[in-house]
Amino acid sequence: MLARLRYVREVLRQAASFAGGIAGLVTLLLGGSIIGGAAWLANTHHRTLAVALIAGGILLAFVEGSYRVWVGVSASLATAQARMSELDLPEAKRAYLDEQVDRALGLRREFQDVVERTDEEVPHAWQKSEGVEDLVGDLDHWEDEVRAELKEAFSLEMARLFSSDAVEPPSPDGDGSVYLSRANSLAYVDRRIARLREIRAMIA
Fold first, then answer.
1. pTM above 0.70, yes or no
2. Which of 74, 87, 131, 191 is buried deepest, with most CB atoms within 10 A?
């Protein structure tokens, strides 16, 4: 709904600009006088022409906006279809999974390299350590991308398997939250890696 309102607002803005340009042109043609332009609009036929020009501006703005949306959607669909075509072959799927394992290993190394805060008076010292929150955000974003790709190009079952935590190693600390300790963060990434390797072994 908000997107539609923004679109209509943009269309009206463009139409107003178009109408303003026409009004300015009419004023110049009549000698550069605003009063002369108002006198020109006093004529019924002239007002009808002005309304037609404004309506034409609105129509052109809608057509232009719709064309841009159509081009954008077509480009997105073409990219998605090309990506899915790339993953049609088993070799391509295994290569994709190997690439994601490498990305996960990279995230794991970054978690290992974090300098953990040692302030005893600071609760949740690992979570408050510099870089941890950004790393967890990167991990979430990566997970969402992989899950969506698995769902589209592999199968729904494989996407669900990737998200499952029923695999070693378990989180060693507390409730298992990835924010609770370095060990939990590493265990979480290790489970995602284990799932990716398990899915790879399922590819015929």
1. no
2. 191
